[in-house]
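Suppose a classmate hands you a notebook page containing two proteins, each written out with its sequence and a corresponding row of structure tokens. How would you begin to make sense of it? This section walks through that situation. The first entry is reproduced here exactly as it would appear on such a page.
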Amino acid sequence: MERRSFVSGKPAVILIWTAVLSGLYLTSLYSYLLFHSLVETFSIVVAYGIFMLAWNARRLIDNNYLLFIGIAYLFVGNLEFAHTLAYRGMGIFHDTDANLPTQLWIATRYTQSLSLLVAPWFLRRNLKAGSVFVGYSVLMGLLFLSIFAWDIFPDCFVEGIGLTPFKKISEYIISLILLGSVVLLVRNRREFDPKVRQWLILSILLTIVAELAFTFYVSVYDLSNLAGHYFTLISFYLIYKAVIETGLVKPYSLLFRNLKQSEQMLQQANEALETKVEERTQELAVSNEGLQAEMVRRKRVEEELRESESQFRQLYDDAPVGYYELNSEGRIMRVNHTGLIMLGYPPQEIVGQPVWEFVVEQDVSRQEFHDKITGVLTPPPVFERTFRRKNGTVFPALVQNRLIRDAEGRITGIRSTILDITERKQMVETLRESEKRLRFLSSQILSAQENERKRIARELHDGLGQILTAVKFKMEETLRNRGGTPGGADLRSLETLIPMLQQGIEEARRIGMDLRPSILDDLGILATLGWFCREFQKIYSGISIEKQVDIQENDVPDPLKTTIYRILQEAMHNIAKHSNADRVSINLNRSGERIELLIRDNGRGFNSEETLSNENSRKGLGLTSMRERTELSSGHFTIESSKGHGTTIRASWSCDT
């Protein structure tokens, strides 16, 4: 077990907080305005951070409590920001005293406390983010109008006297509201991760302590006000750890907690089902052993047989799957209790009826279905069917058939096991949607990567490249103008630096072109292919390239141009590094409604399945990268290769991609 370092342990946290609080105290001695601005800035940043996390994850998370808090804290941060600007000494609002920032403080705390009290209401209810956003906007507008325009917000501080009764009573009311939000968090503790709940409760309790501290000060610069800001700072740090840090480091503890709980419940249910089946199987085995042991005595045999039959009947009826027995005509002769519940019929309405009366068949007629049952009686051992309940609803089921034979081996019917797979299909659909979102995120990452490559390449070309070129030009001009003057010999010694500068310019240009060739954005993919092949052959002169382009520039969509270039770049890199090929053919064409890129070499080839399955192979990662780029752009990617017979890479896209 690894030992935790001191830096990541509790002593380090205590030491850091001691240093921070001490530094803030020293700051207050130097300038209380600076101290106040630092504390309030931290609170504002945390409030905006909570909003950004919740708002940007709103389409993925299933936690409406977090989304509501995120929207609320955006407006709490706005009010906190206005309070900071209104503080005496900031110089933002002219002709103001300490009453204005105190009024804004009370408005902020009322908004924060009421939001925390209302938020648990949305733990198990839907939330319309737009309506909440509009509501808070109207509330903040009314608060600002009541303070700045209408002048109807009660006074909270009077110079020379101190806090007004309204301000003190408001602090107590806010503390009671916050205490109520703590009670609701405790009542709904099952909805939160224990660590997240602990940090939220501690944050609210420290906010209460801060509010109580703010009821005692006479001046906005005295010790009670200082202590209140300390507690406010720590309370915002705790809600930062509860929401922002947990949301980023352990999203399943906050953003996707409901999904995680559902997965755990499903796993527990599966384990319980397996345990129950094992227990029932053990009971049946014990019964069978007892039956064999008592065969010597007829009466005991009969008693054991009846007991075993009763237990089997109970097991048969209580099984987690439906059991049906069909005769040679396809009619249901026997069905267990689970099967009756599954279809919603009483026994008298289902026994004796043809099985196709309860099956939804889209592609098979009744007669064809009847022939399958009553003909050779050899239907597929396991297949999927859609059944219709009595109330008209349908559900998918997995059917497993076993033939029933008499003592002479003749087929007399079929015994079917029916398993409702509705939940399984829903899970598959959920996984498919998750995969779709993952592919979208991967596409966004690739797009961001290309944009960053483009930016760095532009910076190298426009910044470093131009600076080096200017220095080289200046040195050459100086050498030409002063080469024959006294001291010219010293200047001529600088001639050795010019090739180095030229080399630096070429290296900067090479790095920029490798990151993102400007020709791709300026002239398009066709010109880029020609440029790339020429540059490649300069480096790898032993590899000849046959290039065939049968497509117009306008036929290739702009986003697809980058994908084609990256696939070509990766493929040629692999050929130069791994294939030992001396000839490569590149074909970019349009065939009907599809665009196709074909790269073929005559190298030594490889076992494609073995290479792609090897996670540690850099070659395998390169091929995987090309496949992912193609599929993320809605294309089709194939690799054909075998040892000693070269490699063919084919990527194709629909023209309307």
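The notebook's second entry, a different protein, reads as follows.
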Amino acid sequence: MAKNDKILIDGIIDERISSNIPSKEKDEVFEYFAFEQLLKNYDLSHDELISGAVDGRDDGGIDGLYIFINGHLLTDIEKFSWPKIGVILELWIITCKHHDTFKQAPLDNLVASSSELLDLTIENNDLQGSYSTEILQRRDNFKTAYRKISPRLNSFNIFFSYVSRGDTNELGESIKSRSDQLKKIAENVFGLCNTDFKFYGSSELIELNRKKPIFTLELPFSDHLSSDGTYILLTKLNDYYKFISDNHNLRRYLFDSNVRDFMGLNNVNEDIMTTLLNEKSPDFWWLNNGITILATKASIVGKSIIIENIQIVNGLQTSESIYKFFSSGNIDIRNRSVLVKIIVSNNSEDRDNIIRATNNQTFVHPSALHATDKIQRDIEDALKLHNMYYERRVNFYKNQGVSIDEILTPLYLASGFVSLVLKSPQRASTLKSKFMRDEYKYNKVFTANTNLQVWPKIAYILKTTDKFLEKNRPKENGLIEYFYKHTRHYLSFLAVSLILKNYGFTADSLASFDYSKYTFLELQNAWDFLKDCYYKTNSKYRLDNEVFLTLCEKISFDKDIKGFDKLKYSNSLIPPKTIQHIKKEQISLTQEFLNKLNSVLPEQPWKPGVHKDICNDINCTYEEYNLGVAILIEKGLRYKQKDGIVYDKQGNILKIDSERVDKDTLKLKSPKT
């Protein structure tokens, strides 16, 4: 190891500590940095990196545990797109210590835990060691995945890694022996399993850190057409494989703007792979729609095109299939071609429209296209004015070198909106990514009716709260995000309420909130009320919502805080009963459909049977109509109507269908005979 590499690493860690990436704790910052470098080829987001961190009490010597299936991180068993054939399973087990040397003790601990954790015949309750909830949950996920994909498992790899600031050239024999023992443990319990153990010291980390995503690449072609910034090419399959891979690893960062993740080997992808494997099939581009690439600049040099700021916005399924074909050792003896379309544009709105259009040609869940919604672009622009970066497209700013501390995700801001605007810190603390797939909940939060200045205020409040919690959080929680997620919303809501002397503050009052008043002193004041309400279980700190409401009620009397009823009776993201009933049918509606429905609905009160005419007119089902109307009512674009009477949200009568309703009794008139 070069003597100065340790100094360079320490400098990087110090810089990240100052930027709070991901905290102020040196061990945690080093840990996060190590995970980021080791898993760089998977192009994980900040939240994905955090999700695999299991460091803490009873971690079995494991600091990072990540499961990949065909290169995609497994986090949600229920929502994962499971491949049907050709599965590559990868398990990363990482031990990370901010030590000057590599020591044997961490490996002794890892050997003891791995011998039983990797033996899937042992139930969790029968494990001899004591393990945290996070470790057991990851083990359950791995066990489920292993069982589910075992009939179609092509390759299974386990990667053990030990990271420190030490010198890998000075490893002791006992340490090397322990690493070999770990490999044997894995091979004994899994049989057909490829195992690898690597030590990463300062030099290796520096080398990985210097490896940056390359967004300017050269693509050879055999033929092309070009016109006004658009290029249509035929490029050899093998050349395209080299274009999207680096040292046989897929350049996943090139696909950040693609709204659809790889769907596994479904029927379409099976057909693609069948075509690739069939040496007698017609040329590949005859049977495939091809690839669409967005770029900011492109120039042809000889029989190659040099493309700058590459984003592959359509053709992920084709690209991954081509990658799997060649990375599995196959050779295209017929030298077939794939069609590639390159569009040069520097206009962000045009680029978003292209992404939406190219990804609407096959089924994509509407929620996957939210990144290109106007409201999402508006929020991004509003936050940029405050030097904050809204990552509506995963890793878009991260891959441009923007500090993680300045990046905000849609889920992070949405949870703040649910807490502060919808008055539900409890639901905010448990908000998960599936929220973005629920059209009703999404539209409840991301609505154009809300003052855009709310979003910078929410961002500032949450970030300031996190900085305060960094000084007050339990140290044994390690890198786990749980404490922040479960605490930030209760604390920030209470602090803002105390400052404004009102639990029922509106979105408009929040938009004009003077955040210079949101100080650590005010947060400490709120924390003094809140901190004793928490109880600890399994290394996690929880707060019961009823306890929180009781606290708020007491404070409302002691400190004369208004609006407690707004908090007590908040239903936040719970849809009306009509929507709850219809949602059982698993209907999802696009914003385009809602706009169309709103435009064809007549003025209220509606006549009986109007739904039949509208459903015929816009070609939708009765269920879609009913759900759409319920959403429009909830958004305030239409009003609740029952038996010919139109009501506002407070239950006041707005209009009456005088042909059907008696104005004096408000009852339906008897039908004429």
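A careful reader of the second entry would note: The mean pLDDT is 85.
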